[in-house]
Amino acid sequence: MASTKRNLKPIDTIWECPDDLWINIISPVIEALDPPAVTGRKRVDLRPALNGIIYHLRSGCQWNHLPQEFGDDSSVHRTMQRWIIKGVFDEIWSVLVGHCEGLDGVAWTWQSADGFMGKARFGGDTPVPTRRIVRKTAQNAA
Question: For the chain, which terminus, N or C, has the lower number of CB atoms within 10 Å?
Fold first, then answer.
C-alpha cells in the first residue's frame, strides 16, 4: 500500500498572532475563560501581551528583555501565568487542533516528544542517601 503525501505548503514561523486567528479563535476563548474583573485596575491590552508571550517562547529571551512594543514585561509574564492557571492555552490548543482536523491538516500517525537530557549534577555515579522517616505510632509515643 503506497503512502499518500499531502501537498501542503509549510507555514512560516509565527512571531505574532495573525488577525483572523485572534478574532475567530483566541479572543473568544480568552473572553470565556478569563473575563476582566468588574473592579480593580484595567488590564493590559491582551493582543500585545499574547504577542509578547509568543516572542518570549520563540526567542528564549529573559522577560525583562522583551521589546517595549509588547508592554510591561512583568504584566506580560503575569498574564501568561494567569492564562496557564485558568487553562486558556489548553483550550486554545484544543480549538486549533479541532479546526485543523476539520481541514484534514493533522497527521495523527506522526507524533513527536520534546525533552531535555542533562548531565547529573554531581556526576550521578553514587546514589544520593535518603533520610528515612520514622512514623510515630501509639506504641512509639508511649
Answer: N
